[in-house]
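Re: that backbone. Tokens:
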């Protein structure tokens, strides 16, 4: 009981569900990953304002310091959207929450992710999000947008898919790089939009105030974005620097060389680790090949 009381999600329990079963009481249902951030919140609001679909949001709990803030913001945004679109009270289903530690990544999926990450930077979340989505019997929308790192991998290997509630994109049948199968379980509804473009559309559709309630920082300090973590720096690079206090933006600029060096070292360590695992795997593969022959 004491451990349960320490759960940061407890204050928001009325908004959430721990069941992952697909509810077929109302259709159509759009399943999407909602983090409380700019991109996924735009998609939630767009569906509620422009369509009649039911939205089933999913959230994976990790060890980020920002988890409680994200959950609180999503609860606040849910209430705000009910004021704008009264039907949102029925159409925006309770948040389906899953612990990241309960997602066990298949070795083949892990290998695909590692090979992709060898080529260029790719967020660690895509490995376990892919595994999570692959266990479902329906696609999961993922808000990869025009300036995402994942967009760089996917831009030549997606195709448009017309749906009753609007077109989305998904991986082509035979991607040029087989390791892009990592993204097979997803649909991409905002693939060609920038963060600024989403903000402009939100203003036209009347939910820009909700967008200002979104959260993105992974290491908040005194309730404000830190300005230094990767999501904060992405926000500044992509035209949303106004969301970060000026003193934190200055700090981010001053720390840029240090952050770049730290990331270069981390990539070097990861690369050596991958190479070492490859070397260790070679004798085993030769033994298996000899056994077959």
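Recovered sequence:
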């Amino acid at each position: 009981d004491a451990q349960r009381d320490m759960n940061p999600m407890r204050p928001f329990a009325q908004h959430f569900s721990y069941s992952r079963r697909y509810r077929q009481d109302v259709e159509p249902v759009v399943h999407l990953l909602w983090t409380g951030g700019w991109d996924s919140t735009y998609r939630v609001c767009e569906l509620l304002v422009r369509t009649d679909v039911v939205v089933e949001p999913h959230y994976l709990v990790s060890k980020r310091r920002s988890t409680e803030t994200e959950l609180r913001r999503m609860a606040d945004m849910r209430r705000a959207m009910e004021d704008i679109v009264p039907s949102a009270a029925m159409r925006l289903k309770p948040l389906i929450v899953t612990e990241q530690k309960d997602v066990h990544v298949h070795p083949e999926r892990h290998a695909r992710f590692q090979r992709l990450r060898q080529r260029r930077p790719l967020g660690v979340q895509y490995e376990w999000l892919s595994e999570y989505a692959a266990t479902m019997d329906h696609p999961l929308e993922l808000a990869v947008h025009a300036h995402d790192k994942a967009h760089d991998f996917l831009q030549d290997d997606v195709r448009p898919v017309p749906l009753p509630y609007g077109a989305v994109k998904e991986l082509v049948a035979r991607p040029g790089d087989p390791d892009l199968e990592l993204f097979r379980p997803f649909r991409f509804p905002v693939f060609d939009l920038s963060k600024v473009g989403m903000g402009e559309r939100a203003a036209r559709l009347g939910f820009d105030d909700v967008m200002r309630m979104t959260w993105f920082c992974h290491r908040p300090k005194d309730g404000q974005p830190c300005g230094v973590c990767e999501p904060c720096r992405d926000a500044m690079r992509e035209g949303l620097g106004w969301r970060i206090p000026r003193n934190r933006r200055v700090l981010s600029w001053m720390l840029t060389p240090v952050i770049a060096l730290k990331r270069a070292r981390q990539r070097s360590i990861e690369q050596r680790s991958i190479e070492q695992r490859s070397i260790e795997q070679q004798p085993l593969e030769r033994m298996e090949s000899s056994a077959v022959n």
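The radius of gyration is 20 Å. The longest strand covers residues 54-61.
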